[in-house]
């Protein structure tokens, strides 16, 4: 029986952020002891694959089959939370993340759980969650979480734009980017980069899988759009980024937040 790598490493490699269950094969580590995958977990894996292929309704149907086997299986609870988030039902998703946070999938759920807190507007709790994730030994998770810290600062800062810019510039130089995309986003928030450089960085990464590439574009649109919206206050530019990304099908965990951000922008800017 093969034991998979730690759930932390599963949840943070760029191309695997949305596919935690796809690589959960025969068993999972539970407090140092491996347990065999259940029938419910196998069905949950299939549901997750459908989700990342942007087949949300089919994913929900598959997950109902998993729940019929065992509604309390951690994989079922976790997958239901991610599906609820994808469908914009963030309050329901929160209950699922809270349920798995002390179990075998706690580490795998940490990033989507933190993003869910942002979706709910619980910024103080989200800031604490991402501060902890920023200390991860996995370089991608650490860099991704530091970008979230920049976004949260931009989203919640009160006062003069100059003060916000200075605060972000100081924080951005501390970002330990794991990819060219993360580096370009950090430079953007530092006031030294550009939106064009962010998307050029993605192109330089040579992502072959279309799902990986779409995920990278969604992440870039969210963070770059947030910079335009909350730092530059260039609302038309933010709208263009959000609308361009939302015109493509996708299952990124940032996608519901793109919709939220777009809805907050002044109608006169559209």
TrEMBL record:
Highest taxon, organism lineage: Bacteria
Keyword Signal: yes
Keywords: Signal
Database matches in InterPro entries: TPR-like_helical_dom_sf
Signal sequence interval, chain numbering: 1-36
Record's keyword annotation contains Signal: yes
Listed SUPFAM superfamilies: TPR-like (SSF48452)
Protein's recorded name: Tetratricopeptide repeat protein
């Amino acid at each position: 029986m093969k034991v998979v790598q730690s759930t932390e490493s599963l949840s943070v490699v760029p191309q695997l952020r949305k596919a935690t269950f796809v690589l959960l094969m025969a068993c999972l580590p539970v407090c140092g002891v491996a347990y065999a995958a259940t029938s419910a977990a196998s069905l949950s894996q299939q549901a997750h694959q459908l989700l990342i292929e942007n087949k949300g309704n089919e994913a929900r149907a598959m997950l109902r089959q998993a729940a019929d086997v065992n509604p309390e299986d951690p994989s079922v609870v976790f997958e239901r939370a991610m599906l609820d988030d994808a469908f914009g039902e963030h309050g329901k998703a929160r209950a699922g993340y809270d349920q798995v946070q002390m179990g075998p999938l706690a580490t795998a759920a940490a990033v989507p759980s933190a993003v869910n807190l942002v979706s709910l507007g619980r910024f103080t709790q989200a800031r604490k969650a991402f501060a902890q994730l920023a200390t991860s030994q996995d370089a991608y998770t650490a860099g991704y979480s530091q970008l979230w810290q920049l976004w949260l600062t931009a989203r919640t800062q009160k006062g003069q734009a100059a003060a916000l810019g200075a605060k972000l510039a100081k924080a951005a130089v501390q970002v330990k980017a794991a990819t060219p995309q993360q580096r370009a986003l950090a430079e953007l928030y530092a006031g030294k980069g550009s939106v064009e450089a962010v998307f050029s960085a993605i192109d330089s990464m040579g992502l072959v899988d279309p799902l990986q590439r779409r995920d990278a574009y969604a992440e870039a649109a969210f963070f770059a759009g947030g910079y335009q919206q909350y730092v530059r206050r260039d609302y038309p530019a933010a709208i263009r980024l959000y609308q361009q990304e939302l015109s493509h099908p996708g299952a990124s965990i940032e996608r519901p937040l793109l919709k939220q951000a777009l809805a907050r922008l002044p109608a006169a800017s559209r």
